[in-house]
Amino acid sequence: MSTRPPIIDADGHILDREQDVRRYLQPPWDQRPGPLFPLDQPWDTTLFGKLPEASLPPELTYRHGLSPEEQVALWHGIMAHQGIEFAVCFPTRAGAVPHIRERDFQIAVARACNDHFAHEYNARSERVRCVGVLPMGHPDAAAEELRRAVTELGLISFEILTTGTTAALGDPIYDPVYAEAERLGVALCIHGTRSWAEEVGAQKLRTFAEVHAYAFPAALQLHFTSVLCQGVPVRFPNLRLAFLEIGVTWLPYYLDRLDEHWEKRGPEEMPHLTQKPSATARDSKLYFSIEAGESQLTATIDYMGDEHFVYASDIPHWDNEFPESLEQLWDHPVLSTATKQKILSDNARSLFGLGLAAAAGRT
Q1: Domain for residue 92, yes or no?
Q2: Angle between helices 175-184 and 139-151 (to 10 degrees)
Q3: What average pLDDT is seen over the chain?
Q4: Which residues are registered as beta bridge partners of 189?
């Protein structure tokens, strides 16, 4: 087996703390008591601590309560241990910003989060980059904050959770956000979540396992359906979008299903699509994070083309399988070395415009 290339982790995480974000709130919001982020169900994600930690040395094991400085140092250690060149990190709590009902407070918290990520994480490392969050409940303000966060703070991407939006993400109300992201050359990442799973019907389920298994794909597929059928990749052909944290082997089945509906109803209900949804997806700047153990991974890559897929460690969340997932992908018996190189490095470099986005933001 040839030497493994330097890895770009397209979806790791930080454990963001309210106390750190609060220091960046502007008046009068800095005087407001109470929590910043709405809370969901108090699930026990570790089964009373029984779930094993990732198989890394103890000094590289994440724990709650770490400061931003400690988390950056820990990420550097993990990256050195496993040959990761660059890590794109998503917040764990701040993605809940769109759930804040008050417009001005939602905007203020989003700004504080982005200032915090830029100054307390990104300023400490050339190789760890936290993405920002947007007040997506108010697309006009989200577009404005995206512009500020790119041009003033140098953020390279933004997380949009699959719950908390007022409409599905293909709705034209979000066009100002997409137009600004396309203009500035930054990626938007639609990221799965199990929080507020009642938005997609999971209130009928009993256990955390059921909710987690169902809500991630259900919510993300809802937005994927809207984005594709409403022609977002056609209307914004240079916009880079990622769909993260549900794997990829659903794509052949689901695109076949969308193709069938396009064939029967496309001119009336998908007027922006001049070709099948599957062809539109293949021709667009859409990216998806894989799960290395997916049984139909090879068939899915053959179906879509290997330029659409990225590797994600999901560190430090309870269900990550790092570093085994990295080893499993590199040792995959069927995928070619060239395809592995794309998934582990090249595609993420294209998705996040590494080396390009910061310059675009200063134009």
Answers
A1: yes
A2: 10
A3: 94
A4: 159, 242
